[in-house]
Specification:
Blueprint: H1 2-31, H2 45-67, H3 69-91, E1 95-96, E2 99-100, H4 101-115, H5 119-139, H6 143-162, H7 166-174, E3 182-185, H8 198-201, E4 207-210, H9 211-228, H10 230-253, H11 262-278
Antiparallel strand pairs: 1-2, 3-4
Helix pairs in contact: 1-5, 1-9, 1-10, 2-3, 2-6, 2-7, 3-4, 3-5, 5-9, 6-9, 6-11, 9-10, 9-11, 10-11
């Protein structure tokens, strides 16, 4: 249960850090220093556009995992580097000569990840990546479009696990590779700083949570932050964390099972939002 508690804590860390990043980005948008990703945040076409763009990326990941593992590693490192750069620029935002501090810190972080491929560096890179991406997308979307995006990906998550099962294929390929697209918590917490599949060598099972399960609840809470304020967005984050707790309890009764996390997380987000409207 310690691993489950740590996974829950890391999920909540992403949600709270993302709200901090989102508030910074929202401040830049309101002051005119930055532009939202979409000119009309309330349009549902924004969600359909994002869904249509991200699905081919999923297909690309599957093809790379199946046929070009080395290319996948390069693609993964590029993605997490750019996402960490975005997050750290919004959090720190200091120029060092002609380079930004976010660029330099991301370069160091990803370099550390390559030099020391441990669950600690794997999770740290993903936490920073998810916090920035989820926050920027959420602030750029209205509440209704972000809810639509959650619904679309929840249906897709269910389909990809139970029907097409390509998400199961991805998980089985990503876990052994210690990919930074998965949040990973070893059963033995001391294995956080060990290289390779430390949790497997110790005879225990690691817990894993996909990057999308971190980002999409944050997208919704960040859109609530933009529309309703901090208190409502915190309630959404707390409610989604409680839904993750329920998911972990279900998994504890069925060890080794792969379940779609997003449908239950989306229900938690919606309940948190509805509760915030009643208070």
């Amino acid at each position: 249960m310690r691993a489950a508690a740590v996974l829950l804590l890391l999920f909540l860390t992403v949600q709270l850090l993302g709200l901090l990043v989102g508030s910074r980005y929202l401040g830049f948008v309101n002051s005119g220093e930055a532009e939202p990703l979409f000119s009309n945040p309330q349009s549902p076409w924004n969600s359909l556009y994002l869904f249509a763009v991200l699905l081919p990326l999923t297909l690309l990941v599957i093809l790379l995992l199946k046929f070009r593992r080395s290319w996948f590693r390069a693609f993964e490192l590029l993605v997490v580097f750019l996402c960490c750069w975005l997050t750290l620029d919004l959090l720190v935002g200091i120029q060092v000569g002609w380079l930004s501090s976010g660029f330099l810190l991301s370069l160091l972080l990803v370099g550390w990840r390559v030099a020391r491929p441990t669950p600690l560096t794997q999770d740290l890179v993903l936490i920073l990546s998810a916090s920035g991406v989820g926050a920027v997308l959420g602030v750029s979307l209205g509440v209704a479009p972000s809810l639509l995006l959650l619904a679309l990906f929840s249906v897709y998550d269910y389909f990809s696990v139970f029907v097409s099962r390509h998400m199961v294929f991805m998980a089985k390929r990503l876990v052994p590779s210690s990919s930074s697209l998965l949040l990973s918590v070893p059963s033995q917490l001391r294995d956080f700083v060990r290289e390779g599949r430390a949790g497997k060598r110790a005879g225990g099972r690691s817990l894993h949570l996909g990057g999308g399960d971190l980002i999409l609840p944050l997208v919704f809470s960040s859109s609530v932050l933009s529309a309703e304020g901090l208190a409502s967005s915190l309630l959404v984050s707390l409610s989604s964390s409680l839904s993750l707790l329920l998911l972990l309890l279900l998994l504890s009764r069925r060890p080794g099972t792969i379940l779609p996390g997003l449908p239950l997380l989306s229900v938690g987000c919606l309940l948190g939002f509805l509760l915030s409207r009643l208070t």
